Amino acid sequence: MGAIKTMKEVESALPQKKEINYVRALDKEGNPILISKEDLAQVVGELMPVVTPEKDGLSNSKFATTKIKSEGKRSILLYRSSSSQWAPFAIRVSCISTGEPSSDFCVYIAGNTMELQDTTKVYVKYMYGQPNSDTYLKIKYETDHRISIYLTSDNSLGDRTIVRELIVRDSMYDMATQDDEITGLADCTIVQ
Length: 192
Prior knowledge:
six-stranded mixed beta sheet, mainly beta, five-stranded antiparallel beta sheet
């Protein structure tokens, strides 16, 4: 009769695989169970903290950062509200140029969407730098009472990388480049 193996010896002899359906675990009474990888992922995910200003953790999608290249287009959609109802938003946008470092800038854009368009305010505060004299941050009041915010140029945005971080969001829209002229744009309020 062979020697009795310890659990450690038995487990160390098992093959390691990445494609699994179930994991062996112990329930709270110490009884062995099988748990599906989907259920295990949910349990582990619920145990991981979400990052906040007060504590470290995993990044929440509301703090999502996205990046886009201007590729010589005239405009980039930075933000579009998801509804016409009151909702605050705040984004940070950094614009990095490969050819003109003097036109690099970082800006905070904040405001709220309101059903009455004349009460919607969008505030802009430049943290460093300024865009070129032919580049603007503009707001557009859409026909469905939502708002859109664009980085736009009279001619071309050139070769730039735009990084957007959603700080407070009510929108899931991705940034997008556009080559057509956008009509009906209004100025944002610049805060000193």
